[in-house]
Specification:
9 strands, alpha+beta, 7 helices, about 260 residues, Immunoglobulin-like
């Protein structure tokens, strides 16, 4: 249980007291003080910062204990496992048994969530707490609230929230709406290929020769000739009249 591992942190205080006052040691001391005061969030932050500066095995063990007390169970299990993967030293040996006992206890306490979805379309994406997820197997999670979202073309189509407690093994069922089927596109029929013809083209019909009688010029000229002939005939066939012509000496008769 986490309470037993608090004693391990208290024992580390004695070891850390002889360390030099470097930044990593200062952060570790602040984390130990916060752990004694049961301020586990601050303790976790300080151990995490100290381990980033100086990755000592006992700092990692302290971080695992703080993660366990702040319900970061998945991270705590990973930290205990990493602590055991490191070579044993005289300093870390007393805490290795505690780490080995912590892992099976965490396996029972870590809740899981199985996502079951129906109606998934090609391209649909499932997210759990903003990260990609699948429906293949149950997912180990920390206790607390979690959100499952199904996105289609980037837009959410289904969203569910679930609260998990220690040791829970829950399922979340998602009914995905059927994606609308776009209307089938009707392609216009292809244009027929041009047919090759080997026949000789028919000769054009012979052009009719224009008749003179249909010409306007002909009839115009004919009318002029007829009028001229009629005028000449009238002039020569009409007898002259002997009208008196006035003059200065009287009236003259022109023979």
């Amino acid at each position: 249980m986490p309470g037993h591992r608090i004693l391990a942190i208290a024992a580390v205080v004695l070891i850390a007291g002889i360390a030099h006052a470097d930044p990593a040691s200062t952060l570790k001391q602040e984390g130990l003080k916060a752990a004694k005061d049961k301020n586990w969030e601050v303790a976790r932050e300080r151990f995490e910062q100290s381990y980033a500066l100086d990755p000592r095995p006992l700092t990692l063990f302290n971080l695992a204990v703080a993660q366990e007390h702040t319900d970061r169970l998945v991270e705590a299990r990973a930290s205990y496992t990493s602590f055991l993967d490191q070579p044993a030293t005289a300093e870390s040996e007393p805490f290795r048994k505690l780490a080995r006992n912590a892992i099976p206890a965490l396996d029972k306490a870590i809740p899981t969530l199985q996502i079951r979805a129906t109606g998934l379309a090609a391209g649909d994406a499932i997210e759990l707490d903003g990260r990609a997820a699948t429906t293949d197997a149950a997912i180990a999670l920390d206790p607390g609230s979690h959100t499952v979202v199904v996105r289609r073309a980037g837009a959410p189509v289904v969203q569910r929230s679930v609260a998990l407690v220690r040791g829970a093994h829950d399922n979340v069922d998602l009914a995905i709406p059927v994606a609308p089927v776009p209307p089938a596109r009707v392609e216009p029929p292809p244009e027929p290929a041009p047919r090759l013809s080997f026949e000789r083209p028919a000769a054009p019909p012979p052009r009719e020769r224009a008749s003179v009688l249909r010409s306007g010029w002909f009839w115009g000229a004919t009318a002029i000739v007829v009028l001229a002939a009629a005028g000449a005939t009238y002039y020569y066939l009409t007898p002259p009249t002997h009208d008196p012509t006035p003059g200065t000496l009287g009236v003259l008769h022109v023979p």
